[in-house]
Structures are given as structure tokens and as C-alpha cells.
Amino acid sequence: MAAMTPVRAAGGVVWRPSGDGVEVCVVHRPRYDDWSLPKGKLDPGEHPLTAAVREVAEEADVRGVPQVRLPLVHYLMRDGAPKVVEFWSMRAAGTGGFQPQTEVDDVRWLPLGEATRLLSYPHDVRVLGDFAALPPVTAMVGIVRHAQAGKRGTWSGPDTARPLDTSGQAQADALAELLAFIRPVRLFSAAPRRCVQTLQPLAELLDRPVEVDSAFDEPAPGQDTVENALAAAGALLDLARTGGSVVVCSQGKVISEALARLTALADPAEPPQDFETGKGTGWLLAFAAERLVGASRLDGADRLLTPDS
């Protein structure tokens, strides 16, 4: 018998400061008389991150800012069908979006211990444990590789002037929706035209300028690649030190090497991670002060990410 296609859902562990710690949001569903984390099924063609933010708003009346993608949750629903849920840790940044037709009739903000005891399902308890293991996030950096820009060999002008093609424009539009969720206050780009154009839809959406910074350019001919990677990693750390959220568009050779350097700085014993980044994709980087504590792969396409991706 063929395996059943899992039902896809997304949600969030939404937190807010409280005294010396944090409170998290849990919701009650009268239909099942249970307490759970806010989550819900993806709409057709909906990106999981979009669904996570939407469901938190609709069920808990919270505008959440995604920070770290938590491990995927797999379980069987009451009818035996498999379900997979993508959870994100989210900072509560306001209210709004509640939909009265959802299954939720009560929302509570509780300290982690009380929330853990109230939750009805072991898989939600595990998610809360994954969240509790994270240090407090102080800065978010979205870093993406420029979108599709045709082939270098078919472009007659300077390579730095090569523009996005039709597919690249669509990729840039899709990325803008996702990157806007972290509420960036500044946008930075490597110098090539295709990098600046990749951030243009986001710049228009947020009404913010794109600032060009050559620290995110690929190595020039004769430039040492290690030196280039260290400079890019240093520039990302400088942005993290300021706190808040920013977005950077760079190039493939820069991103993979810079993120490898940041990971090694955060934990020298951590096994090397694959930071290969396709065009029009990227990462959401979460920092605790100067330490990288989360690197969540970001893809503008609607696809189910594996636990290791």
C-alpha cells in the first residue's frame, strides 16, 4: 500500500518578555477540549512560514516575528492520517488577525513550566522544550543569494550589470513576502545589479532604501577567498551587534563561506553544516549578542523542508 501523503501544517511558539523570563502562548480548542500551540493547515500553495505567521495571528491574535525554525513534528491525527508541522519560535510584536471562526475559544500566556504542564500532547511539549533550549535572540539577519539572472555567457555587458531574468523577478517577489516577516529596518546588498534588484520588491514593500555594501561582494580576481569570507562574516557580526532585524543580499561563494565561519565561531566543536545556497534562496540567522544561535534555511518556493535542511 502506498504511503499516505502527510497533512502539512505550521505554527509558532510565540513568546513575550515577562519579569526576568518569558511567557509563551497556548490555545484551547473546545472541539477536542485540549491545549496546544497555535498552528493550522497550509492553504493550497501557501509557504509554511506564511502559514505559521497567519495561523498565530488567526488563533492567538498575535503578530509574530519568526526567529528560529524548530525541528519538524510528525504524528498521526485522530483519523490515523500522518501530519507534519513546521514550528517557528516567534517574538510577539503586536496584536491583530484573530479569526472568530477558528477552533480556539481561549488564549493564555504562561511561563514555560506552566505551559508545559498544561499542554495536552507530548509532541507540543517537545516543541516547547526545543524552544526553551534556545538562548534569547537579540538580532535577526536575513541573508539571501541573488535570484536568477540568466547565464553569464549570454550577457554582453559587464557582469556586475547583469539583471534578473523573468524567473529571478518572480523569486525576488516571493522572497520579499517572507523576509518582510522579520520586520527588517535596513536592507544591504552586494554591488552587482542582480543583488540590488533581488531586494527591490522588499524595499518597495517596506518603503526602505537598499544600501550597497561591497563587504558582501564575491572576491575580486586575485583577492584571497579566506580573507573575503572573514570580512563578510565580520560585517554580519557588526549588523548583529546593533540588534533588531536587517536583510542582506549577497553572492553564493560569499554566503556559504561566511556562514561556515560564523558557525565555527559560535561552536568550534559543531560539525560543519552545508551552507550551499541556491539562487533566490537564503537563511534567517538568529543571534544572541554576537553568537549565531540559529540558521534556518529560507526558500521562496512552497516545499517541505527536511529536518536537516
From TrEMBL:
Secretion signal, residue range per the UniProt entry: none
Q: Do the record's keywords include Hydrolase?
A: yes
Q: Which CDD domains match?
A: HP_PGM_like, NUDIX_Ap6A_hydrolase
Q: Does the keyword Hydrolase apply?
A: yes
Keywords attached to this Swiss-Prot or TrEMBL record, sorted alphabetically, are:
Hydrolase
Instruction: Identify the InterPro entries for this entry.
Output: His_Pase_superF_clade-1 (IPR013078), His_PPase_superfam (IPR029033), NUDIX_hydrolase-like_dom_sf (IPR015797), NUDIX_hydrolase_CS (IPR020084), NUDIX_hydrolase_dom (IPR000086), Nudix_hydrolase_domain (IPR051325)
Q: Which residues form the Nudix hydrolase domain?
A: 5-132
Q: What is this protein called?
A: NUDIX hydrolase
Q: What is the lineage of its organism?
A: Bacteria, Bacillati, Actinomycetota, Actinomycetes, Micromonosporales
